[in-house]
Specification:
176 residues, four-stranded antiparallel sheet, alpha+beta, 9 strands
């Protein structure tokens, strides 16, 4: 079977230790978590884990089944990139003198739809939101100038199609 990118959405109660147990499911199968984000969901007291993996459909279905066996998990879904709308954010810290000495950096910032979020005497910080390849492209363009620090967030995603989780979460909220 062919490997591809999958985004797993896990809706759960917010309990200590769940992240450790979920990551253990991937560890046992030797599948690397490429990106992880945990946040509040549209329903109060329900958390949403967004996990990105590169694996086969068989493995992702197996993983989703194992995740759903966790008591705190309400529901888990796996989506291909075509089935979701997603973004990630990155911050690039660059030496300040380059902003003025290298005109090309200003063009790179403008053409990549990035923004400068802070400037000091020693450095400035560029923020870029977009798909993974857009962040990677900006990184490749800035690398020759010297990146002092770089960090990227985990993927955040919503499905293109209506998800049955909304009704399920409303029932959960009504019970609590």
């Amino acid at each position: 079977m062919e490997k591809k990118w999958y985004t797993i959405s896990v809706y759960s109660e917010n309990h200590v230790g769940l992240l450790n147990r979920i990551s253990g499911i991937f560890l046992k199968r030797h599948i690397n978590i490429e990106s992880l984000n945990v946040s509040a969901s549209e329903i109060p007291s329900v958390s949403k884990f967004t996990i990105v993996v590169f694996t086969t459909q068989k493995w992702v279905e197996n993983i989703v089944g194992q995740i759903e066996k966790q008591i705190e998990v309400i529901k888990a879904f796996a989506h291909t990139d075509d089935e979701i709308i997603y973004q990630e954010t990155a911050l690039f810290k660059i030496a300040s003198h380059l902003l003025f000495d290298e005109r090309q950096i200003q063009n790179i910032i403008k053409e990549s739809n990035s923004q400068i979020v802070t400037v000091s005497r020693e450095f400035f910080v560029i923020a870029k939101a977009g798909r993974r390849h857009e962040v990677d492209e900006l990184h490749d363009l800035l690398a020759p100038f010297g990146i002092l620090q770089f960090v990227r967030s985990g993927r955040i995603a919503v499905s293109k199609e209506a998800m049955p989780i909304t009704d399920l979460l409303k029932k959960y909220e009504d019970l609590n």
